[in-house]
Amino acid sequence: MQSTILKIVLVSLSLTGCAMTVASEPASVASTSKGKTLVDAHGMTLYTFDKDNAGKSACNGPCATNWPPLAASNAAPSGDWTVVARDDGNKQFAYKGRPLYTFAKDTAPGDIKGDGFLNNAWHIAQP
């Protein structure tokens, strides 16, 4: 009996470990009025910022309050997805080297209120 329970526990732990190592993409693609757009797990539009340099976010402090970074706590780079170290020590996802953000004024999936914001410095992220 103990041997059977031990086997079940080991198989369960083994499967759990496998599930945790499988990388999933941090965003998906949805359709908006401007075409195909990258969205987060909640369906919220993702944006890029012209002032960012490849692999470096220029949006910190109050900017990051209005434009929350797409968090990448314990993530690893995979394919077109990379992880950017932020000035505050947190990590965020980047797609093809461009850090990604949501916009605080987008209130529902499909909103694209941030596109063109700040003299056209913000753009919807497209695949």
Helical content band: 10-25%
Helix and strand composition category? alpha+beta
Shape: globular
The largest sheet is: 3 strands, antiparallel
* Count of folded domains: 1
Detail the poorly predicted runs: 1-23
Give me the strand/helix succession: HEEEHEEEHE
In angstroms, what separates the terminal alpha carbons?
Answer: 53 Å
What share of residues are in beta strands?
15-25%
What is the mean pLDDT?
A: 85
Radius of gyration: 18 Å
Can you count the beta strands? 7
Q: Describe the strand arrangement of the main beta sheet, using strand numbers.
A: 4-5-6
Counted by DSSP, the helix tally is 3
In short:
The chain is α+β, with helices and mostly antiparallel strands. The strands form 3 sheets. It has a 3-stranded antiparallel β-sheet with strand order 4-5-6, with no helix packed on it. A two-stranded antiparallel ribbon has the order 1-2. Strands 3-7 form a two-stranded antiparallel sheet. The longest helix is centred in the first third of the chain and has 20 residues.
Structural overview:
The protein is of the alpha+beta class and 127 residues long. The chain has one domain (25-124). The chain is built from three helices and seven strands, in the order αβββαβββαβ. It has helices at residues 2-21, 62-66, 117-120; strands at 28-32, 35-39, 47-49, 81-85, 91-95, 98-99, 122-124. The protein has a three-stranded antiparallel sheet, with no helix packed on it. Strands 1-2 form a two-stranded antiparallel sheet. The chain has a two-stranded antiparallel ribbon with strand order 3-7. It is globular and about 35 Å long. It starts with a helix and ends with a strand. 27% of the residues are buried.
